[in-house]
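Students often ask what a 'structure token' actually looks like in practice. Rather than answer in the abstract, let us consider Ferric reductase-like transmembrane domain-containing protein, a protein of 471 residues. Its sequence is given first.
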Amino acid sequence: MDARPRPDDSAAPAPADGSAAARFIRPADRPLAVMLRAGFWLTVGFGGIALPFAVLLTGSARPPPVGLLWDFAMGCGFAALAIAAMQFALTGRIKALTGPFGADIVYVFHRYLSWGVLGLMLLHFAVLYIWYQPALGELNPLTARWELTMGRVALVCFGLLIVTSELRKWLRLDYHWWRILHLALAVTGFVAAISHVLGVGNYSSMENALALWLGVTLVWLGFLIWSRLLRPVVQTRNPWRITANEVERGGVRTLTLRPEGRALQDWKPGQFAWLSVGHSPWAMRENPFTISTAPDHGPEISFSIKPLGDDSARLAKTTPGSLAYVDGPFGTFSVDRELDAAGFVMIAGGVGITPVMSNLHALRSRRDPRPVILIYANPELNDASFREELDSIARDIDLTVIHVPEEPPEDWQGESGRVDKALLTRNLPGVTRDWPHMLCGPPPMIAAASAALRDLGVPARRISFEIFELV
Ligand SMILES: Cc1cc2nc3c(=O)[nH]c(=O)nc-3n(C[C@H](O)[C@H](O)[C@H](O)COP(=O)(O)OP(=O)(O)OC[C@H]3O[C@@H](n4cnc5c(N)ncnc54)[C@H](O)[C@@H]3O)c2cc1C
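Now compare that with the structural description of the same chain:
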């Protein structure tokens, strides 16, 4: 548990001027480039929803008009299907797509869009039920028209998707089984919905509309094949080997991995990856962990894992020599996204220190001259993982570490208790208000600390957080 000479940050040459940050920021991470990419993806997204309407409105041989409410119901159905297809791209871990926003934001977006899909489907059904009931035919699946039954199957699947996701913990659904169920319901729901649209044939029998829905299905199939078949193949060809498993304070274990194929490409400090040990990449048995080292250290990477449940406990016990699979990097919790920052405030709670460590290693190896204030909360001082390593980093860069043990030792002179407004006021001088504030820790701590920072006048755009839960 001492300051091991793990990644040798101090080996890097010190830059001659204060431009340390700029030298390491990739052009793709510069603010304008990020905004342009975000704008591009939003345009693609909204364009994808608008596409069915454009095709239907401009198409020839449109069916005779039935009524405004009928067209509205059809529109709701088409929009629901377009968004449902898009959902597979949002959860497909496509780096180009998640990059500008951050994987957590994309998952939150996916979650709320799901409500949108269900709402549009219910609206589609409700309008037809109220005003065009004969069109719905029989309810009994044994005697009903198959394409109408497909529509109902889709509605039930999307409803179950939302219920099982929102109430997963309450239903005590194991995360692994929930993921399998989620995929099965999503695939069945989408196939049922597209069969319904094609089978019913309203508008979709038009030549260009048929091409549209077949195109949507192909794109959807492409995402599915990539994420469930091709990516595991790529991972199988690029395995990793665990080379060390070290004990840290606070019950955390650090696994070090060496690439046996292609190393991680283009990763930034503070990013995370999905890690799988002891299962094939097809098993959907992988968990997200921050890479606690920095890219500046070469191809080896480390994950620091706190055993909190079945998978993390199993991973923490991994023996050196085991084979692992890594899918990443993802995430935006990085000093590399903060080129213009004059300094950094970092607030970590417990194992939330991992992305902070990665960022600090990067700043140290680059001899970045910008000041960093780290507020680090733990139940007890002895639980503070990487305590000695932080002391060592503080000798090389302008880092101030403020430990906040909830239960301090008797002779403790420093801060203690909770990270609240009073503590932040005492430790953050006014000059830090416009610095990026990077928070990672238990959700209640993040909520309380960010509310206190807002009270102190820190602009919302200067507060970012990493949440260790994606759904
Ligand atoms: C971006 C990110 C970075 C993380 N970095 C670290 C880190 O550096 N160190 C660390 O110790 N922990 C980290 N975590 C948390 C870690 O992923 C969970 O503690 C671990 O997956 C829990 O799995 P479990 O089976 O041990 O526990 P369980 O009791 O099964 O799960 C506890 C909760 O963790 C979440 N979870 C479980 N499995 C997954 C999964 N495969 N994908 C997403 N969420 C899941 C679920 O919300 C679940 O309810 C990170 C999480 C995220 C999202």
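One point worth highlighting: The mean pLDDT is 89. Ask yourself how you might have guessed this from the sequence alone, and why that guess would often be unreliable.
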